[in-house]
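> call design_seq(struct)
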C-alpha cells in the first residue's frame, strides 16, 4: 500500500473514533452504535497494518451491516435506513470478494 492511503485510512479511523466518543458521551445513542464504530476502527487499523487483509475486512463489514439490518428490523427504523444499510452491506461483501480474487490471482 502506498503511504498516501495510510493517511486517508488514518483520517477515517480518527473521524469514526471521534464521532463515536462524542456521540456516546453527549447524546443518548445507546450501545450498539459505539460498538459498531469500534469494530469499524479495528477493521480500518487492520487495513492500515496489513493491506492484503482488505478483502477480508470488507467482507466482515458487509456481514456486520447485514446483521445490523436484522437488528434494525426489530427496532423502529425506517425502510429507507434498512434498505440503504442492506445495499451497502451487500456491496461491501461483493467488493471484498473481488479484492480477494484479485489478490489470489497475483
Amino acid at each position: 500500500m502506498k503511504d498516501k492511503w495510510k493517511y486517508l485510512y488514518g483520517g477515517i479511523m480518527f473521524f469514526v473514533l471521534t464521532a463515536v466518543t462524542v456521540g456516546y458521551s453527549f447524546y443518548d445513542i445507546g450501545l450498539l452504535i459505539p460498538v459498531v464504530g469500534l469494530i469499524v476502527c479495528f477493521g480500518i487499523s487492520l487495513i492500515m497494518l496489513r493491506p492484503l487483509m482488505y478483502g477480508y475486512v470488507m467482507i466482515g463489514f458487509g456481514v456486520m451491516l447485514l446483521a445490523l439490518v436484522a437488528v434494525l428490523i426489530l427496532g423502529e427504523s425506517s425502510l429507507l435506513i434498512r434498505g440503504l444499510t442492506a445495499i451497502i452491506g451487500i456491496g461491501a461483501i461483493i467488493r471484498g470478494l473481488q479484492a480477494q480474487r484479485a489478490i489470489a490471482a497475483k
